[in-house]
Amino acid sequence: MRKIVRLVARTGCRTHILHVSSGLSVDVLRRAKAEGLPVSAETCPHYLTLDCDHIPDNATAVKCCPPIRDLHEQDALWAGLADGTLDGVVTDHSPASADMKAGTLATAWGGVSSLQVGFRAVLTGAMRRGLSLADVVRWMSCNTARLVGLDDRGDITPVLRADLAIIRPYERFVVDATALESRNPICACDGMTLNGVVTRTFVAGRDALSGVREGNLIVRP
Ligand SMILES: [Zn+2]
């Protein structure tokens, strides 16, 4: 990370760091941002919610790159999000079949599948730390849209595209990988109790299940 930041300082090249998993990287990025360097960075739900001392041995469902680190590193990631050093949380959703995830940690496919529950895993961790739903929305929607130039979304406001989920943040549920929509019933969050039950989802103003467009949810043609 230090090498990359040195190169950014030398070249002025706009740089995005993906999958930050360690506190050391957060420290380097914090200093880089304080110096005004054009860097942005993200971490992922699995680095914020899992830790290497509490996952079962040989749990290939959580094999990913970089690997899951300990609670000390996890705390540093949350601090980095809270103070804006880390701009966002991205899913890094990487589904794989049971065949690909079979074997040992050394041989199994590296990648975590958690698209359907990642937002709620982060929400659960945030609420436990006294952070809010609004913080999670900023990391996983507003900042992400801004970062990649999707200027027609990323906020709830007239003229923007209405991609919305209506959730009950205090209602809890247990993740059952076999009940998720994913074709492969493997999930890094399997068995976790999470906050956030989704009651309705809108894609560009249309109810994702019924396809019915709600009156004023989308203004932009
Ligand atoms: Zn990745």
From TrEMBL:
Gene3D superfamilies in the record: Metal-dependent hydrolases
UniProt-listed InterPro entries: Amidohydro-rel (IPR006680), DHOase/Allantoinase_Hydrolase (IPR050138), Metal-dep_hydrolase_composite (IPR011059), Metal_Hydrolase (IPR032466)
GO cellular component entries: cytoplasm
Coiled coil regions in record: none
GO BP: purine nucleobase catabolic process
A Gene Ontology molecular function term of the record: allantoinase activity
Ranges where the Amidohydrolase-related domain occurs: 69-206
PANTHER family linked to this entry: ALLANTOINASE
Name of this chain's protein: Allantoinase
Name of the coding gene: pucH
